[in-house]
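Encode chain A's predicted structure.
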Amino acid sequence: MTHIYGIKSCGSVQKALKFLDTHAISYTFHDFKTAPVSREIIETWVKTAPLSILLNTKGTTYKILGIKALELDDNGKIEWMSNHNLLIKRPVIEYKDQLIVGFDPSYYEGIFLS
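Encoded structure for chain A:
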């Protein structure tokens, strides 16, 4: 089953959910705000997708917390992401043996519709 992580108010998450709904692809949704993901899950993701893709450096949370100024190593970044899930780029989709981060309609078509 496809599992999507994110927050309902995120535009990219809304687009991803709409894409999946439009193409009748079943999924479960995990909301970061109501049920934060653990460090262990993030560490599993990092084995599949680079941390540079998973850490949302363009988001408000990243800027407000001043993460850039901290000059964190990978372990520090993972720690911050586990304590502040809104630092994770959205959506994160677990699909078969893949981890898909962000929303790109042409990429989604290649993965979900082929």
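The helical segments are 11-22, 39-46, 51-54, 60-65, 67-70, 74-83, 105-112.
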